[in-house]
Automatic annotation (TrEMBL):
One of its GO terms (molecular function) is oxidoreductase activity, acting on paired donors, with incorporation or reduction of molecular oxygen. Keywords: Heme, Iron, Metal-binding, Monooxygenase, Oxidoreductase. Its cofactor is heme. This is Cytochrome P450. Pfam families: p450. The keyword Transferase does not apply. PANTHER family: CYTOCHROME P450. GO terms for biological process: lipid metabolic process. Belongs to the cytochrome P450 family. The keyword ATP-binding does not apply. InterPro entries: Cyt_P450 (IPR001128), Cyt_P450_CS (IPR017972), Cyt_P450_sf (IPR036396). Gene3D superfamilies: Cytochrome P450. It comes from Linum tenue.
């Protein structure tokens, strides 16, 4: 997904690029999420633990690092609600089911308007035994 903004004043971006008033600045959130100089050498790897500190607690990152919800004064008002929903659903699913990836050795993406997994992503969900 491409997004952009129009500069309202002369400015300098964090990498030193000069932006003049009226310039358009566009970025690709998909590409930024895979840049090794932002996320490290394992940027291509799915590692949810990169959001946790050494004690296993959530470690907030700059909203400008993960731009799915934008950042600054125009950050998405629903961001916290979306995070909360994600956590509730994840806990509920993991409480009642075990998941195993099936039929894929290598997951690849098909870039479209929204990001699709090429060939689909098949999971086998089996109920967990009652405690």
């Amino acid at each position: 997904m491409q997004d952009g903004r129009c500069s309202e004043a002369d400015d300098i971006l964090p990498d030193g690029t000069r932006v003049k008033k009226g310039d358009l600045v566009n970025y690709l959130a998909y590409s930024m999420g895979r840049m090794s100089y932002i996320w490290g050498d394992d940027a291509q790897d799915f590692r949810p633990e990169r959001w946790l500190n050494d004690d296993g607690a959530f470690q907030p990152q700059s909203p400008f690092k993960f731009v799915a919800f934008h950042g600054g004064p125009r950050i998405c008002l629903g961001r916290d609600f979306a995070y909360r929903q994600m956590k509730i659903i994840a806990v509920a699913l993991l409480r009642y089911f075990r998941f195993q990836l099936g039929g894929h050795d290598n997951v690849t993406y098909k870039t479209m308007f929204t990001l699709h997994i090429h060939g689909g992503l098949y999971l086998c969900a089996t109920p967990r035994p009652a405690p």
